[in-house]
Amino acid sequence: MLKDKFGRRFHYLRLSVTDVCNFSCDYCLPDGYQCDSDRNFLGLSEIRQICAGFADLGTKKIRITGGEPSLRKDLPQIIQIAASTTGIEQVAITTNGYRLEQQVDAWVDAGLNSLNVSIDSLDPRMFESITGHDKLETILSGIKRGLDRGLKVKVNGVLMRQYNGNELGAFLSWLKHTPITFRLIELMETGDNKDFFKLNHLSGEPIKQYLLENGWSPVIQNNTAGPAQEFWHPDYQGKIGLIMPYSKDFCASCNRLRISATGKLHLCLFADKGLDIRPYLQQTDTLELQQQLQQLLGDKDATHWLDQGFTGATKHLAMLGG
Ligand code: SAM
User: Fold this and answer.
1) Please, which residues have CB within 8 angstroms of residue 195's CB and are 6 or more apart in sequence?
2) C-alpha of residue 283 to centroid of ligand 1, in Å
């Protein structure tokens, strides 16, 4: 089993399958993806080994992320590999939704259970100004298609003072009739966005207080849940969540590990470096991989130290899939 020295258990793997992203979000890749890194991304047989090795160590949920995972032509095969791994109960994807409408059927057919889509604004002009793409409408249609196909859908929006700081009302109106969970993520500081962060970081705490004072109640979570605090309301079909990485005890419930698109294990989103596990993916069984993973986990820190401005090796979150 994957357990660290602080007693945290790891049931959840975030697997990045590419660093490349076609969006240029102001807080992440404002100048678009720059091809300055190793683009020798994990192949299907390596992905199969990762899924099997983690599953044998108790992982139950795999999230496929990027960069933008839908830019990989073999994404349905990747989903299929994860979904058919013994022990894996949930396969999820995080996407900007650019290709959702055309591709979601193939993902569901391959075994996808749940879908996270990033939408930072419900105002099409603001959406375009943040991402560089006038795609909000087609992304919303893709979400509808995903819901029709039975997917559990979550939408993530990064909370930013100068962009969507006053959109809570619009998000809540959407949730009235839409059976999704919308999660507001506090903007995180990364190596590349320090000035943007200073101008735009907003705490989710006042929103939490507003929700609690207006009939929203906390949802009880299970152990494969993410780090969001979620809330429900009897008059709303959707739920709302807050991801507040700067809040006290955020890391105490950490249950996830990350693999980069080039096969590096990241013990934390803001770790100093990735630990190369690629050599162990070339073998016929996963025994050595499992031993390595257990050993490397010994170095996992108690917390990310983000509140003190340490952003580790993470220049932007497209490197690791958020
Ligand atoms: N391309 C996919 C997408 O757009 O969802 C997956 C990768 S993206 C890096 C994953 C998530 O990280 C997105 O929801 C994005 O908004 C979020 N993200 C990126 N940079 C962030 C930051 N500095 N602070 C908080 N969230 C961030």
Assistant:
1) none
2) 33
Burial class (CB in 10 A: 0-12, 13-18, 19+), 37: middle
Q: What is the CA(305)–ligand 1 centre distance, in A?
A: 19
The Cα–Cα gap between 74 and 78 comes to 6
Look up the pTM and report it: 0.95
SS (H, E, C) 188-219: CCCCCCHHHHHHHCCCCHHHHHHHHHCCCEEC
* Weakest mean pLDDT among 117-126, 253-262, 308-317: 308-317
Ligand 1 pocket list (CB less than 6 A): 21, 27-28, 65-66, 68, 94-96, 118, 156, 158, 185, 187-188, 190, 193, 317-318, 321-322
pLDDT tens digits, residue range 175-193?
999 999 999 999 999 989 9
Q: Which of 253, 192, 232, 248 is nearest to 9 (CA)?
A: 253
Q: How far is the CA of 318 from the centre of ligand 1 (A)?
A: 7
Q: What are phi and psi of 86, to 5 degrees?
A: -60, 130
Q: Give pLDDT tens digits for 32-78.
A: 998 876 789 999 999 999 999 999 999 999 999 999 999 999 999 99
What does the block give as tokens for 129?
């100004």
